[in-house]
TrEMBL record:
InterPro entries: AAA+_ATPase (IPR003593), ABC_transporter-like_ATP-bd (IPR003439), ABC_transporter-like_CS (IPR017871), ABC_transporter_ATP-binding (IPR050763), P-loop_NTPase (IPR027417). Belongs to the ABC transporter superfamily. It comes from Halonotius terrestris. This is ABC transporter ATP-binding protein. SUPFAM superfamilies: P-loop containing nucleoside triphosphate hydrolases. GO terms for molecular function: ATP binding; ATP hydrolysis activity.
């Protein structure tokens, strides 16, 4: 298996700040690697190291070369902050950046791919934030790169646009493009990535497939029962053998399989305890993130004992099943 990206003992200091602290990472040809971590963890710095836009200690290789020696035609980069000329239209911008390469994808095809066919002739400065981000994604794709770096590509893009860009990225991945993706959207990273790395304080503290990370760090499945009688309900469930914890307006029952839900409901019925609704969910990458970063959040029914506002609140709840309870 050939490695498209390799970082060996990469360290980056900004004065007293250690942005990267001995990072070792390799990404195989055609792999989609998701990089997650809190604000300031070092994600952008690692992208900058791998794209040769910042000097680091240690070794960095992109397709067996130092990043600054790689054929620019083969690499695409969407930086976290990117401001193209604002008095050009979306079409002119894609044309302009395409002209910087020996060969470029068709402008109309790119515009359509990123969902801008109808606003192609609007000035960049008159587009919404999300539409501007779509232009920037289009620019990153214009040279049909073999290796694509995307630093928070879908920030500011609405949910439908985000999903359509995920499809674009999945198509690129299916075609063999190597993608390094950073994002605060755990749903995005879980859906797109073959493997995920979590950076914390400049160190890569966990690497694995989403399933591996969830199995190792995500905790068990969970049933959340919304009820004002949470103390009594927790007692009734505990008596029935469940690991139940009372929160102010809910009971959280850990490690419940779907077939046990009926027994939990029966235990509440037997104690004549009403509930509003119940929600069962499996752990997700968000739980892994919360577990490994240890960030805290106050809230009834949160999947983890910890949570963080850094995590995208649009995270998918595909695995959640909600059922109205009796009154
Ligand atoms: N040019 C710079 N000068 C000084 N410090 C910097 C510079 N760039 C980054 N840093 C610091 O390096 C650390 C890592 O920053 P980096 O931008 O890589 O984090 P990040 O994980 O991408 O964060 P975010 O999720 O907020 O984008 C932070 O402490 C940041 O303040």
């Amino acid at each position: 298996m050939h490695e498209a990206l390799v970082a060996t003992d990469v360290t980056k200091r900004y004065g007293e700040t250690v942005a990267l602290d001995g990072v070792d990472l390799s990404v195989a040809d055609g792999e989609v690697f998701g990089l997650i971590g809190p604000n300031g963890a070092g994600k952008t710095t690692l992208v900058r190291a791998l794209t040769g836009t910042t000097a680091v200690d240690g070794e960095v290789r992109v397709q067996d070369r130092h990043p600054t020696d790689v054929d620019a035609d083969r690499v695409g980069l969407l930086p976290q902050s990117f401001s193209p000329p604002t008095r050009l239209t979306a079409r002119e911008l894609i044309d302009y950046y395409g002209g910087l390469y020996e060969t470029a994808r068709d402008t109309d095809e790119i515009l359509s791919t990123v969902g801008l066919a109808e606003t192609a002739d609007s000035w960049y400065e008159t587009l919404s934030g999300g539409q501007q981000r779509r232009v920037c994604v289009g620019i990153a794709l214009v040279n049909d790169p073999d290796v694509l770096f995307l630093d928070e590509p879908t920030t500011g893009i609405d949910p439908a646009g985000r999903r359509s860009l995920w499809s674009v990225l999945e198509t690129l991945a299916d075609g063999g493009t190597t993608i390094l993706l950073t994002s605060h959207s755990m749903a995005e990273v879980q859906r797109l990535s073959d493997r995920v790395g979590l950076l914390r304080d400049g160190q890569l503290v966990a690497v694995g497939t989403p399933d591996e990370l969830i199995a190792d760090h995500g905790g068990g499945s969970r049933l959340v029962i919304d009820t004002d009688a949470s103390e009594a309900a927790a007692d009734a469930l505990a008596d029935a053998g469940f690991a139940a914890t009372a929160e102010p307006t809910a009971v959280v029952v850990d490690n419940v399989s779907p077939v046990d839900i009926g027994d939990a409901v029966d235990a509440l019925s037997a104690a004549d305890l009403p509930y509003e609704s119940l929600t069962w969910s499996e752990p997700t990458l968000e739980d892994v993130y919360l577990q490994l970063t240890g960030e805290s959040f106050e809230g009834a029914g949160s999947r983890s004992a910890t949570a963080t506002p850094a995590v995208d609140s649009t995270a998918e709840t595909d695995t959640a099943a909600t059922q109205e309870g009796r009154q």
